[in-house]
Amino acid sequence: MTRTKTDLFTPEETRLAELAKALAHPARIAILKMLAAKNACICGEIVDELPLAQATVSQHLKELKNVGLIKGEIDGPKVCYCLNDDGIKELHSLWAALESTVIAKCC
Amino acid sequence: MTRTKTDLFTPEETRLAELAKALAHPARIAILKMLAAKNACICGEIVDELPLAQATVSQHLKELKNVGLIKGEIDGPKVCYCLNDDGIKELHSLWAALESTVIAKCC
DNA sequence: TATTTTAATCGTAAAACTACGATAAACGAT
DNA sequence: ATCGTTTATCGTAGTTTTACGATTAAAATA
User: Stated in angstroms, how far is A79 CA from C27 C1'?
Assistant: First the structure.
């Protein structure tokens, strides 16, 4: 059957898992770092800096965009990507909520 | 070919991605929350609280253990799970490093 | 208008993930 | 020694992820 049953977890758990999944690949973390460092990058720059084919990078960018962590703006034939403040903040607060309960609690 | 090329990213990117992947499922986030709340849980309690089969929960526990976020201690026929402070701290610092560069930087 | 550049999408293949029933292994209790 | 309890592992099926070449679409340029 393999159904996900996401409805059986809280919205916070489901959403944080979704955001975590977006971070679950080193290329996507590298992209976020690039966008943070340069504030905004055209797609081509990102492709040039990653050891992956253009199609693959485009796929990773789409995932980050779909989950709300980055935005892409068409600029002529190029596309300028930047961080999406709303998504970053959401990730920040969801993770902070979990972390505060989890840090410094071990047996 | 589908090789991962993880060697072409920094160790920090690779490790954070690995830890993020462990958080990339609501059940595993729920497990971490349970362990934080109760400090330690026997496996059976976790199985009872999650809407998943015992075998599936065992698989999720294994993933969290493999990545270093939890520990399991055999206690007779039962197994007592708890958070692994080292892994939690590592996640904390890796995420903090990325977040500090990423927060409040948008176009 | 034809050409070039840029980036998304399509098609596809291999691997990993998710889920579960069935089974096995380990231990306590009878 | 046998039985019941607990949890890991095995086997397996369906889905998703990752990766890439090839193609398409859109815009600038010649």
Answer: 62
User: CATH assignment of A11-98?
Assistant: 1.10.10.10
Q: Is A32 near chain B, with CB under 8 Å?
A: yes
Domain extents in chain B: 11-99
Q: Which CATH architecture has domain B11-99?
A: Orthogonal Bundle (1.10)
pLDDT in tens, B29-50: 999 999 999 988 899 999 999 9
Name the residue facing A20 among B24, B51, B92 (closest C-beta). Answer: B24
Helix or strand (DSSP H, E) at B80 = strand B78-83
Q: How far apart are CA A42 and CA A57, in angstroms?
A: 12
What are A19-75's pLDDT values in tens digits? 999 999 999 999 999 999 998 899 999 999 999 999 999 999 999 999 999 999 999
Separation in Å: D27 C1' and A42 CA: 15
Q: Say whether the CB atom of A53 is under 7 angstroms from strand D.
A: yes
pTM of the model: 0.92
Chain B (86-105) residues lying within 8 Å, Cβ to Cβ, of chain A: 88-89, 92, 95, 98-99, 101-105
